[in-house]
Amino acid sequence: MSKINRELGALAREYRIKAGMTQLELANKLGYESMQFVSLFERGISKIPLKVIGKLIIILGIPEKKITKSLVDVFTTEINEQITEGKRSIS
């Protein structure tokens, strides 16, 4: 489970609940017959495809800036951790 999957999944879950929508209702709006897809990405087990993120922004009213900030923050942290790890491996 990557940190980005957990972050985006938690954000989607938060806004789905605020919208008073079940996982099945959201899955149907996204074009899926089963709630399993939503359950997996909300728990951070599955990656949310970028196309689906666009749909979530509209369906759940998630501010686009909130999602992009979350993505940038996680990627920045992961990049910095990998750079630091690379530096340590030379010492």
- In CATH terms, what is the fold-level topology? 434 Repressor (Amino-terminal Domain)
Share in helix: over 70%
Element order: H for helix, E for strand:
HHHHH
Low-pLDDT windows of residues: none
**CATH-defined superfamily:** lambda repressor-like DNA-binding domains
CATH architecture: Orthogonal Bundle
User: Sheet bearing the most strands, described?
Assistant: none
Domain module tally: 1
Shape: elongated
Please, what is the average pLDDT?
93
Count of extended strands? 0
Q: Number of helical segments?
A: 5
- How far apart the termini lie comes to 30 Å
The first-level CATH class name:
Mainly Alpha
Radius of gyration: 15 Å
SS content category: mainly alpha
The portion of residues forming beta strands comes to under 5%
Task: Explain what the structure shows.
It is a single chain. By secondary structure, this protein is mostly helical. The chain has one domain: Orthogonal Bundle (434 Repressor (Amino-terminal Domain)), CATH 1.10.260. Helix content is about 75%, strand content about 0%. α1 packs antiparallel against α5 and α2 (about 25-30) crosses α3 (about 35-40). The radius of gyration is 15 Å and the shape is elongated. The model has no long low-confidence stretch (mean pLDDT about 95).
